[in-house]
Request: fold
Amino acid sequence: MPEDKFEVFDISTILQSTKDLFKQSENAEIVANLEPEILVLADPEQVKRVFNNLIKNAIQAIPDTQKGRIEIDLTTIDSTVSITIKDNGKGIPIEHYKKVFVPNFSTKNSGMGLGLAICRKIIESAKGTITFVSKMNTGTTFTITLPRNENT
Reply:
């Protein structure tokens, strides 16, 4: 992992550009509800990596037999920023819950199973949290919280 380069940036801009990157996905409609000009102190490139990973995973979780929908929400509650990425995919089996953020764990045929472990490290290094809730055959929602940078 490269060394963190923390700076204050508008997380809504990063989230919008990540959404735009995936908008051509044939299998999923991506809808975003983003509050503008939400400043955080983190490494913007690393945070972009987190969003890329979560949206890519959400798209891959949607069965080929259904139209996917991914909802991205960015809101603030007091001094906290909350980002949710929700899909209508297969869901995560309950027996995998404790392994989701463990390095080298994967349910996919390809990849090294490092994505979510790295996501957690990036978010926690920015003093945030990443959690999820999932229901089989309904979907999964990942929630990221970060401290809001209010020194503008």
